[in-house]
Hints:
Two copies of one chain form a homodimer. By secondary structure, the first copy, chain A, is α/β, with parallel strands linked by helices. In chain A, 19% of the residues lie in helices and 29% in strands. In chain A, helix 4 (242-256) runs parallel beside helix 5 and helix 7 packs parallel to helix 9.
Amino acid sequence: MQIQYQKQVSRWGVQEIVVSGKSEGNPFTDYEISAVFSCGSERKKVAGFYDGDGRYLVRFMPSFEETYTFEIKGTALEDGAALSGSFEVTAPEEGNHGPVHVANTYHFAYADGTPYYSIGTTCYVWELQSDELIEKTLDSLAKSPFNKIRFCIFPKHYDYNLGEPRSYPYEGTPMDSSVLTTENFNEYTGKTEGNHFDFYRFRPDHFRHIEHCIERLGKMGIEADLIVMHPYDRWGFSQMTPDQDDLYWKYVVARFSAYHNVWWAFANEYDIMSGKSIADWERYADLVCRMDPYQHLRSIHNCRPFYDHTRPWITHCSIQRQDLYKTAECTNEWRERYRKPVVLDEIAYEGNIQHGWGNISAEEMVRRFWEAACRGGYAGHGETYLSPDRILWWSHGGELHGESWKRLGFLHDILCETPGLGLRPYENSAWDEVAAVPEDTGMSFRQVQDYYLIYYSFMCPSFREYHFDDTTEFELRILDTWNMTVTDAGIVKGKFRVELPGRPYMAIQLKRHVGNKI
Amino acid sequence: MQIQYQKQVSRWGVQEIVVSGKSEGNPFTDYEISAVFSCGSERKKVAGFYDGDGRYLVRFMPSFEETYTFEIKGTALEDGAALSGSFEVTAPEEGNHGPVHVANTYHFAYADGTPYYSIGTTCYVWELQSDELIEKTLDSLAKSPFNKIRFCIFPKHYDYNLGEPRSYPYEGTPMDSSVLTTENFNEYTGKTEGNHFDFYRFRPDHFRHIEHCIERLGKMGIEADLIVMHPYDRWGFSQMTPDQDDLYWKYVVARFSAYHNVWWAFANEYDIMSGKSIADWERYADLVCRMDPYQHLRSIHNCRPFYDHTRPWITHCSIQRQDLYKTAECTNEWRERYRKPVVLDEIAYEGNIQHGWGNISAEEMVRRFWEAACRGGYAGHGETYLSPDRILWWSHGGELHGESWKRLGFLHDILCETPGLGLRPYENSAWDEVAAVPEDTGMSFRQVQDYYLIYYSFMCPSFREYHFDDTTEFELRILDTWNMTVTDAGIVKGKFRVELPGRPYMAIQLKRHVGNKI
């Protein structure tokens, strides 16, 4: 019996305990292993998993800078012997603020209290591409403002996604994909014959690789919004039995939970996974809620109808547009309906492909981000520019070709200036602007607020007039959200007029003048 | 007793019979005059009116090239004597196609059968400005594609509209307007003291001037969409009694009906005319339906809630946007709900003023026109660019400063290519395009149509694929609705691909190839 683990782990880092165990039969199904981790401030039970070659792993993310002890049990161990040990938890690595959680109903913060303003993107299977392309994606992400990326654990079969992934999650062999064309790919589904996968035997290298990618993202400060299930399938992964599904979910949760930057995106377009019923999704949710010791964020994304986002297991709304024209504009409604953070993970992608979900302009993408932000929610990016190599950011990652991503860091900077945590729609907003105030002011909407962020969207006013009260002084700044300029316009008071350039995409920021702070 | 009239009138021209009559007392209320006009094909009773200086006028628009006789009666005539006469009706003047009517449920045509595709604008009180400015407006209209203009009979009091009109509709004197400022104008309403008008004595010069403007428009092929009542008032014209209102409506209908290009816009923003009830509007409608011998088009425009456009007297919907973001996009819904032409008379104006209804971009204006057109309706233009002289097209006319008006003639040209009369939304349209087919094809939507006009709005596809059937040949043309280019892209058949530039505001036109006509 061998055991390996680190004597020292940083807070919100990963303690990985490697144990040798039984390998006869099917170790993925025949045995189990778990551990209890304890320190003065917490005690957590954690499932382990089989990693191949007679190795079992138990991973743990400590939340306190204390001395932890652990005890490992399970039928996977030789002689059924219990193993134990202890380790020290040191200060977090620089940039690790811990997992993101819902902090004040509508907004997120890291475990250390730092606000988290989501600027997400989608690259469905970037991590299943070649090493070279993965590095290119990581380079692009490093230059970008993105602090969340949505991607799938299973490979993707779809328009522009006919290639084979770098690895499969299961032992076995796929159908012959040389028959696929852009014309016929739709005829191949998860029910297609010719695949021979053993849904009871995982390929640990597939998952190990994804973990590696999650870790890389974590070090870059990017949340990994893991899409656990999706319908774009020709291999049968969307058509497994409940038994097989549950095995998969358990394996995923056991492997990935200890990474601080993991979010659970239960599905992409749950409603077009014809094989799954609401009861299935609820069963997976029950499993994740019981098994994930850290209660990572949980969401489920729609094609057409929303999942019932009032379900208690759902931590935030992950929304795809409901209308060709309006989506970010509905953020207020969804906040009120669900009383949860509203994340618009799919508001159409910047690009030029033939599909309406993948050909909005950069200007429109940035506009949707600002609309969502000033209504107290969070939009998501994606890019679908045709390129000769058929590498589209939205699925494959690679290089960013668009213009919107360059402007989203500016929005993030402005969001980070919000007093407290997050914005909410200002109840006294004029009908022809999108006005936000801080979420948690303890102030009535009738009172003059300390901070206003007012966005004019597609409208082109050359001036606007305001009158909050006669005495409060504000610092006025004019923001050009497209050109990313901030212009100080001095101190204003009483009835005042804001001069604007008569162009779209302008905003203003009003901060109560410090000399006048109440 | 004197009588004057023309011995020859052109079809859809104006026969004006001038009779001397009683002038004691108040000729506007104390006497009446009417005439019956007859020819082989029609017989119409027409109300006359007092034009001042002992002159009564009876006007008539003949619809047939025949010999007409007339007989005039009324208490206005000395001795109560009846007068009669006859005249010949010749061919219409060039460009006079007769009045516009609803021709096939959703679309308009002139009386001679020529399709009328409305490209409207709004200049609320252009005709009440100085002679110089009026000429400038007419020059601008002559260069423009507009074939309808909405304007008011009463003067307008509103932001940017604080000046006095060139004349008043009634005898009397207005309040002292030197007290008005852009800050306080809202405090002055139709109930304001200081006006001394006699609502029983019209000033014929006010109406004569408007008639002159209607005639000028008529010769230019522009419909005069006359706003008979509106709430933007400091003189009391919006606050008259039912008795006074009815007198006004009768005078308006008697004076203006004989002009072929008149439409009755019952109100601008009927719902903010606090003094008027639905019963009032219905009474005016009853009066107009009874009195207008030509049954000119009738509509009523909203601020917030629509008037009940299902009312039989309403010939078409005159709509103001219901939502900051979507209006033209709802044309389909309104067609289905009301089964009448949908005219979006107010979808916000191109400009840069502070108000959201007056600061959309030219691109957005043109986009809204195309959205409406490809959904089987008609948008309306307006311009609200600030200028040092505070002359804004939307109210005063003058010069056009924007960029949208230049692009609307291109849309009109394309609409004129529609086979039959008008477009309807194509029921088999993809979700991510706005596709139209001819209204009256007698074809099921499952059949391949002779003509498709497909608009991509804000989306930027670099190509689109279609497959109507395997055999029909189409002439394909690529339209850039902003740059106004038409590119022939040859004959297509079967499954075909359309190459597009990946920019917004593109459209395509597909015409069944003549060599292949069924």
